[in-house]
Write a structure and sequence with these properties.
The complex is a heterodimer. Chain A is built from 15 helices and 4 strands. The radius of gyration of chain A is 23 Å and the shape is globular. In chain A, the strands form 2 sheets. In chain A, strands 1-4 form a two-stranded antiparallel sheet. Chain A has a domain of about 250 residues. Chain A is mainly α. Chain B folds into 3 domains: about 100 residues, no CATH class; about 90 residues, no CATH class; about 280 residues, ABC transporter involved in vitamin B12 uptake, BtuC. In chain B, the strands form 2 sheets. Chain B has a 4-stranded antiparallel β-sheet with strand order 1-2-3-4. A two-stranded antiparallel sheet of chain B has the order 5-6. In chain B, a hairpin with a 2-residue loop joins strand 1 and strand 2. The model of chain B has no long low-confidence stretch (mean pLDDT about 80). The chains are: A mainly alpha, B mainly alpha. Chains A and B meet through helix 6, helix 7, helix 12 and helix 14 of A and helix 14, helix 19 and helix 20 of B.
């Protein structure tokens, strides 16, 4: 195995990680509130949220940018991870809820006590979630299982391209409808909220928030390194080969379905872990989090940042969300126009995203100067992406 | 001879008029007597007797009396009952019309007396009397010229289960000609006979109810069964058995009715889905472009119907024949606006993305967001009301199953659209070109087909169909900014399920999905039904990955 990071890259990575993991939390913790460089508790939570979104974007990118599978269901896994941890957090509220009962508020409200009298109102599958370890295990296992079953069925019957997108969208839609139902025992459309403790710490203190932020940073860093490593191996090569021409890979004797299934499950797990860290920071998880539009938003982050690169989705996720935070406050009405417009523009004019912009501009400049020199240039097709082909 | 005949006829008519007039004046005298009587029992008898006359004045006076609208005027020690005239003078007083002859009350000078609210004395009533009057009035409704009023009154009176009414019902039954009303009368008689003392009568009534499959009497039968089981002394085992049999018969009848009704509703939902999915089948199936904004194009059609309706309201008023025509115009307009929107979309964005289908998905989703926001800022976030024209509201009732006109219309319209699309694709030169481009774009281009233009036309046509689907949708469901989002997943699933590029597949898939959704809904609820359908489709594609009617092709990714 070759080294997958060269010296320069490692240096930059270390510097950025230091900034995110050490400098920002320190600014939050040790500077006085009046200081210009102080970062408020609210801001640090917002940054933590962005980092989780970046993890989600990496998951989408591993699937779309590197394997050519556009899944519109990655938010489902994100939300499933969130729900798994959220269930544990709900049970940790204890008697501090509004009704001051042992079971979460929504169960009291929905009269689960009469529905599940033998367990005191707690549905059976909720019981093991009292253990944090079980909850953490489920954060990984449940999404992986769902992804495995769906992926197995889809790839076995060689559903690909846009069909895969449509089916994954339908899956997400169905799951979303399911979670909206009150008798599905996950809180209906209010979802899970009002968390009080996480692993024995109060969730709303500045310290916990800071640690959650740092955890998100570490997660993002490790997911980045994992993807970086994976894509530099032979496996990564086959991944890209599948993206560019699945049939040739198939005819070369590779069982592409297995590769795709592995990547799909891996991506689901990445998204789910991101979701699990996201939930304690925003303090709520509900079914709208797994709507198809959320999945599509995650795809836009990748498209805007530049898919098929690893740094692009991170940049995309953070910049689009920062813009969203700002725009929904400044012009709430126009946000959908902006998001929609961004979609269209990114697809039409920036096929390689922000990361690919310098190269694109350079090519444009070269062509311009060539034409100036009177050289005949073939009619260019700037909309065609040289490196990234998504379908044949 | 003729003269004789004419005078005879004139005499006859005169006689008839006199007898009618005397009947009316008799009724008036009876009314006066009833109102002035002091004895409640006697009053009740008199009112019941009045029920047998067929005079409008009786209805008028009795309903006024029930609401304390009959007043007494005392002059020369005589009590004169009267009604107030509708016309008020400037003081808010009105003249009084004598019930005895309909003339206005006059004072000693022969001038009409004006009564103001404060100096009125109402004729006495009590609750028993009011109840009697109400029943009497109901009996009058049994003879109402309006069929619906007649039927409703029959059903209401039957449900009172008062044995005294039976002779009345039977008298009406002999005269009645309307089939439905005869049925209602028979039901009312049988229902009333359930309270009869004789066992045989009761059993016969039960049998009769079973034979006429009376859904209205279901609750009464169940109560009767409970009563009979609790009191086995009065009610025999045979009776209980018969009741159970009757309930069973009616339940079966209801089940069949429900099934037919549900299937019909499913069929109409399927029809709307079909029109919408047909547009998608053309843009996606034939052109390979995923148009996530297809649902919003539907919404464009629905909102066009809304705007057309409002314009017609402004021009021709909210009712009348001209206003009712709005829906026809709306259908055409929604096709045109949606097609125009599709044309702009294709020229502006999609034509750059034919080689990148996954990215066309993203770009069109961006378009759908923008369109949604446009709807929201133009028409508001709340749903808007699109009314049905009068020729589409109402329904046929066959065997207690409702067939709403608007649903029938949508089904017929869908059939026409499918046939029209079929003709367009197979019989016109545009259709030929569309099929050629679909099969082999490069080859078609080499043969001189202007593929660019064909794309444009096809996309506009598909969008136009979606617009018409939206207009139809406005008759069955709410019109709001998120209308498209609710149907887009269904539409995509139908196209994938049916097999891309096949009209027959789209038709059968939308029928399947629409009807299954409706059939599952009452059992599992709308949401769970939908989930099961989605799950079913995913599993079905395991068996036939290319859909129901796959286009056969030798190409690798065909």
């Amino acid at each position: 195995m070759t080294r997958f990071l060269n010296k320069k890259e490692a240096l930059i990575l270390a510097a950025v990680s230091f900034l995110i993991l050490v400098v920002l939390p320190c600014l939050n913790a040790f500077l006085p509130k009046e200081s210009f460089f102080h970062i408020s508790d609210f801001t640090i939570t917002v940054y933590g949220k962005y980092l989780c979104y970046a993890v989600l974007a990496l998951g989408v990118n591993l699937l779309w940018g590197y394997t050519g599978l556009l899944s519109l269901g990655q938010c489902l896994f994100f939300a499933l991870g969130g729900y798994a941890l959220g269930m544990h957090l709900m049970l940790m509220i204890g008697k501090l809820g509004q009704y001051q009962k042992d079971i979460p508020d929504f169960m009291v409200f929905l009269e689960f006590e009469t529905k599940y009298p033998e367990t005191g109102g707690l549905p059976r599958h909720w019981i093991p979630f009292r253990s944090p370890w079980f909850a953490l295990l489920m954060v990984v296992v449940v999404p992986a299982l769902v992804a495995y079953i769906f992926g197995f069925l889809a790839f076995r019957s060689r559903i690909k391209g846009v069909y895969f997108s449509i089916l994954s969208q339908a899956l997400t839609y169905a799951a979303c409808l399911m979670f909206f139902r009150n008798d599905f025992t996950f809180g209906g459309n209010n979802g899970l909220t009002d968390f009080k403790f996480i692993f024995g710490h109060e969730i709303n203190t500045a310290g916990t928030k800071r640690w959650l932020y740092i955890a998100s940073g570490i997660l993002l860093l490790s997911v980045y390194l994992l993807c970086r490593w994976l894509t530099s191996t032979k496996f990564g090569l086959i991944q890209r080969a599948i993206r560019d021409s699945e049939n040739r890979v198939l005819f070369s004797g590779y069982a592409t379905a297995h590769f795709k299934l592995f990547v799909f499950v891996l991506s689901a797990v990445i998204c789910a872990v991101g979701g699990a860290l996201y939930v304690p920071q925003v303090g709520i998880i509900n079914p709208s989090e797994m709507g198809t539009e959320k999945s599509l938003e995650a795809v836009v982050w990748c498209a805007v940042g530049g898919r098929g690169t690893l740094i692009g989705p991170i940049i995309g996720a953070i910049s689009v969300n920062a813009m969203k935070s700002w725009a929904t406050r400044a012009f709430a009405e126009q946000w959908l126009f902006m998001l929609g417009g961004m979609f269209i523009l990114a697809v039409l004019f920036m096929p390689n995203g922000i990361v690919g912009l310098p190269a694109q501009l350079k090519a444009l400049k070269e062509r311009f100067s060539k034409r100036k020199n009177g050289e005949e240039t073939p009619p260019a097709t700037p909309l065609e992406t040289p490196g990234v082909k998504t379908a044949e | 001879m003729i003269r004789f005949f004419r005078s005879f006829l004139a005499g006859f008519l005169l006689l008839a008029a006199i007898s009618q007039a005397s009947a009316a004046s008799n009724a008036r005298n009876d009314l006066v007597a009833a109102i002035l009587s002091e004895d409640v029992a006697q009053q009740t008898e008199m009112i019941k007797k009045l029920a047998e006359t067929n005079e409008p004045i009786v209805v008028q006076v009795l309903s006024a009396w029930r609401l304390s609208g009959v007043y007494i005027h005392e002059a020369d020690d005589k009590k004169i009952p009267f009604l107030l005239d509708a016309q008020l003078n400037s003081d808010g007083a009105a003249k009084g019309a004598r019930i005895a002859d309909g003339e206005f009350l006059k004072d000693a000078d022969g001038k009409p007396i004006w009564f103001s609210q404060s100096d009125l004395t109402a004729a006495d009533t009590n609750s028993k009397l009011r109840k009697t009057i109400k029943t009497t009035l109901d009996f009058f409704s049994l003879a109402d010229p309006n069929l619906k009023v007649r039927r409703d009154a029959t059903i209401k009176l039957g449900q009172e289960q008062n044995l005294d009414y039976i002779p009345n019902f039977e008298a009406k039954l002999a005269k009645e000609t309307d089939k439905e009303t005869i049925r209602a009368l028979k039901e009312a008689i049988s229902l009333t006979q359930l309270t009869d003392e004789k066992k045989e009568t009761r059993i016969a009534a039960l049998k009769q109810l079973g034979d006429s499959k009376s859904i209205n009497s279901m609750n009464f039968l169940q109560d009767f069964l409970k009563k009979a089981k609790a009191d086995t002394k009065t009610y025999s085992a045979e009776e209980i058995r018969q009741t159970e049999a009757t309930i069973d018969t009616i339940e079966k009848y209801m089940a069949v009715g429900n099934f037919v009704g549900t299937s019909f509703r499913g069929l109409s939902t399927a029809a709307v889905l079909l029109i919408a999915a047909l547009g998608l089948a053309i843009t996606f199936g034939l052109m390979g472009v995923i148009n996530m904004a297809h649902g919003e194009i539907m919404a464009v059609g629905a909102y066009t119907a809304y705007v057309t309706q409002n314009l017609f309201k402004e021009w021709f008023g909210a009712t009348g024949g001209k206003f009712d025509m709005y829906f026809i115009v709306a259908l055409v307009m929604s096709f045109l606006t949606a097609a125009a929107a599709g044309l702009i979309l294709e020229r502006g964005i999609i034509r750059f993305l034919y080689k990148r289908p996954l990215e066309s998905l993203l770009a069109t989703w961006g378009v759908s967001l923008v369109l949604q926001q446009i709807f929201r800022s133009t028409f508001g976030a709340a749903n808007v009301q699109v009314g049905s024209p009068s020729w589409l509201s109402g329904s046929y009732v066959i065997q207690d199953v409702l067939f709403a006109y608007n649903r029938i219309f949508v089904i017929v319209f869908a059939v026409l659209i499918v046939y029209g699309t079929y003709l367009l694709l197979t019989k016109t030169s545009l259709g030929l070109q569309i099929r050629a481009v679909m099969q082999n774009r490069n080859m078609a281009a080499c043969m001189g087909v202007r593929t660019d233009r064909v794309n444009m036309m096809t996309f506009a046509f598909g969008s136009g169909l979606a617009g018409m689907a939206g207009a139809c949708m406005s008759q069955l469901a709410n019109v709001g900014p998120s209308l498209g989002q609710n149907y887009i997943v269904d539409c995509f699933m139908i196209v994938v399920l049916g097999g891309v590029g096949s009209l027959g597949g789209t038709v059968s898939a939308s029928l399947g999905v629409g009807v299954t959704n409706q059939v599952l809904e009452p059992w599992l609820g709308a949401v769970l039904g939908k989930i099961i359908v989605l799950g079913g489709i995913i599993l079905f594609l395991q068996w036939r990955p290319a859909g129901l009617f796959a286009t056969k092709s030798r190409s690798l990714d065909g």
